[in-house]
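Exercise 7b. Backbone tokens:
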């Protein structure tokens, strides 16, 4: 499609569409049509981005954007197709580099993973230790953030894969693989009155101040929904981005903690009592996300297999292939 649009305007031997134009185009769209923000993200000038976009439109012979004065207001119908095609072209260019790297040295490179604090702190250490032993020449890079940030970084190609509980399945640019289900526990200081409540109930928890995750993290929406379904409004006195901070403030007596079950370690958290809450909240599913149509290095398959053994190379290829858009 991009070739057809370009051919309609570009004479033989004339200017042609280049990768910089495609990157600038996608950056502008990714930043809400804000050219200034796109230029900042690209480490270039606003006039330079605007010039490249204009040149792209001239070379294609179509308007990509609807303009209101100097402001970009929307994509034109042709622009919507051009952007989608540009994204696919950039992915394929990136794939060419990965193919070359794979055949040049299949056990060297970089594996970048976007994930949340809970995954990085409590789930991934064992997996990454095994991976590092198997691939000592592969540099590991962890990007920690909220589930939405994990999804955005993965979709943008800033990382090889993303691991989180929320947001990933909502992004249609990603292929997501369900990994494992988990639930929550309630943490209280040793000797706390709530530890003697049998059975533990949402009503009992709601009578105490609560310390838990920020609203963007680790199943907070499911926990909120569980309280709301019982007509309860929990008294959340403090929220944090990771479980270690939550446990610190629970230890100080500021409230009872609601955290992911894998965040509790009986040895390290000896000053806290862990109360099972799986009967009070619906389970959550941690997912692994990959971009569509991306060539995966061999060591990426190996990491996935270590993280979730049921996903061997054939299973990953089947999942990606079944989710790909028609050519």
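Sequence design result:
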């Amino acid at each position: 499609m991009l070739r057809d649009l370009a051919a309609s305007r570009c004479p033989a031997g004339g200017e042609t569409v280049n990768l910089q134009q495609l990157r600038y185009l996608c950056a502008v769209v990714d930043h809400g049509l804000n050219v200034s923000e796109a230029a900042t993200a690209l480490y270039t000038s606003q006039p330079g981005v605007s010039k490249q976009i204009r040149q792209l439109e001239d070379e294609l012979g179509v308007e990509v954007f609807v303009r209101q004065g100097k402001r970009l207001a929307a994509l034109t119908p042709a622009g919507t197709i051009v952007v989608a095609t540009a994204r696919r072209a950039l992915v394929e260019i990136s794939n060419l580099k990965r193919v070359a790297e794979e055949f040049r040295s299949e056990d060297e490179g970089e594996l970048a993973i976007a994930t949340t604090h809970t995954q990085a702190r409590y789930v991934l250490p064992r997996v990454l230790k095994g991976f590092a032993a198997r691939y000592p020449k592969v540099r590991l890079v962890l990007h920690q953030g909220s589930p939405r940030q994990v999804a955005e970084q993965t979709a943008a190609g800033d990382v090889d894969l993303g691991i989180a509980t929320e947001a990933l399945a909502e992004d249609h640019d990603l292929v997501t693989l369900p990994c494992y289900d988990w639930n929550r526990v309630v943490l209280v200081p040793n000797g706390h009155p709530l530890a003697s409540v049998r059975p533990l109930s949402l009503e009992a928890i709601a009578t105490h101040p609560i310390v838990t995750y920020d609203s963007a993290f680790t199943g907070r929406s499911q926990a909120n929904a569980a309280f709301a379904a019982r007509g309860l409004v929990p008294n959340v006195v403090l929220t944090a981005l990771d479980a270690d901070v939550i446990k610190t403030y629970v230890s100080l007596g500021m409230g009872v903690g609601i955290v992911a079950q894998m965040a509790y370690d009986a040895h390290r958290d000896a000053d806290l009592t862990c109360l099972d809450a799986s009967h009070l909240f619906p389970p959550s599913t941690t997912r692994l996300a990959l971009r569509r149509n991306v060539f995966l290095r061999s060591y990426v398959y190996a990491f996935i297999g270590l993280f979730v053994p049921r996903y061997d190379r054939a299973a990953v290829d089947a999942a990606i292939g079944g989710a790909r858009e028609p050519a």
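Instructor comment: The first strand starts at residue 65 and ends at 68. Residues 1-14, 323-327 have pLDDT under 50 and may be disordered.
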